[in-house]
Amino acid sequence: GYAANATDIGTGLTKPDLLAPGVNILVRTSKGQVSVSGTSYAAPFVTAASALLMEWGIVKGKDPFLYGEKVKAYLIRGAGQLAGYEEWPNDMAGWGVLCVEDSIPR
Questions:
Q1: 57: which of 7, 35, 66, 86 fits an S-S bond (Cβ 3.0–4.6 Å)?
Q2: Would you state the torsion angle of the CA atoms of residues 27, 29, 31, 33, taken in this order, to the nearest 10 degrees?
Q3: Does residue 5 have a pLDDT over 80?
Q4: What is the model's pLDDT at position 14?
Q5: How wide is the angle at C-alpha 46 spanned by C-alphas 43 and 52, nearest 5°?
Q6: What are 33-37's contacts with CB under 8 Å, separation 24+?
Q7: Who's near 4: CB < 8 A, 6+ residues apart?
Q8: Residue 8 predicted with pLDDT over 80
Q9: Is the pTM above the cut of 0.85?
Q10: For residue 99, what are the CA distances in angstroms to 69, 88, 94?
């Protein structure tokens, strides 16, 4: 499953921007492996995807002037659409599901 976060009620903006894995995520704790859910566990996936894009752009020199809004645009560009929705973006799934591979320009 996926988790979404944030709404901008009354602004006309579609939120969430995209979905990331956030249901039944296996994490290791002092008690062993535990299944957790929620936006707190989806956020690290988006953070890691952003870091990978920054590495691709800035460290590897593919987009040396990469900044936050461009990272967001790349992630939205690569988001995969889910079955069951006719309109994209929408207020339930945003632009779709996070996909780092499809977010990195070729």
A1: 66
A2: 20
A3: no
A4: 75
A5: 140
A6: 37/1, 37/3
A7: 16, 19, 22, 39, 42, 92, 93, 94
A8: no
A9: no
A10: 17, 16, 13
